Amino acid sequence: MQALDLLVIGEPLGELQWADKHHINVKFAGDVFNTAIYAKRLFSELNVGLFTAIGTDRFSENLSELLREECVNADCVKVLENATLGLYGIELSDTGERSFTYWRNSAAAKRMVEVHEDTFAALIQQPPKYCLFSGITLAILDNTSREKLLAVLSELSNKGTKVAFDPNYRPILWESQSVAKWWMEKAFTVANILLPGVDELELLFDINGVETCNDLLSKFDIEEVVYKADDDGNFIYVNNEQILHKPFVPAAKQIDSTAAGDSFAGAYLGSKLVGADYDAALHNARETAGTVVQHQGAIIAHDICAYLKNNALK
Fold it and tell me: Which residues form the Carbohydrate kinase PfkB domain (predicted)?
């Protein structure tokens, strides 16, 4: 296994969007998958890998081909017989806000932890520099797999890996709010970097505002918290102290917010991996998310990414 700069752990999905009343476009997405794509496109020198399980269906085969085309490392992708790739349908409002329908009960990714014992052992021997997982990653797993994943991430952190966690709270995926809260808090205990949307923390923990969110998180030993606070902009806290705030700047237009947070994470973590300071990393994350929301779909065209990389990033 090659040494990885960034390993993302989670579920890639087939993305179905209505082209018109009678036709559907098929693409690939999924929160950490999107993050991996943007990190690799914007910082091609990084070795970015995906940890997951896929099936033997046509969707899975096409995803494997896409990973090769995007130069995303697939050493940690297991192929399971008689399993499939999860799918989701997305509908957009006139303002670009989205709603989802999922078909993932038989998705191979639900078994990704139980089939990767050998991979975990290899990762412990050669830890990645950064590792990202999300609340969606946890939500699709059973309790035994959740415990195992968090234990491995804790061990990786002890060996020097920076563990990043994006809560990405999706109520529909969890057994209940209380169950989600319990597992999120366990995830907070292994995270070095947190990338929360304030609205998600507010919904999950019944709190309000960045300061209240930080009061909640201060009881966990999280080195770095990067808040996405909608109209209040972005905040970075290091060791519970605010070190940076950038006000909200609306995109010229908002077509599709599907991958706003995912692309933000890819640009931010990629920037940190190539040596950017907090200001430059946050600038790059905001520029990337602001560009992505102006286009349809989770993954924007290569030429738009190239223009962003060459003209807008620090």
Answer: 21-301
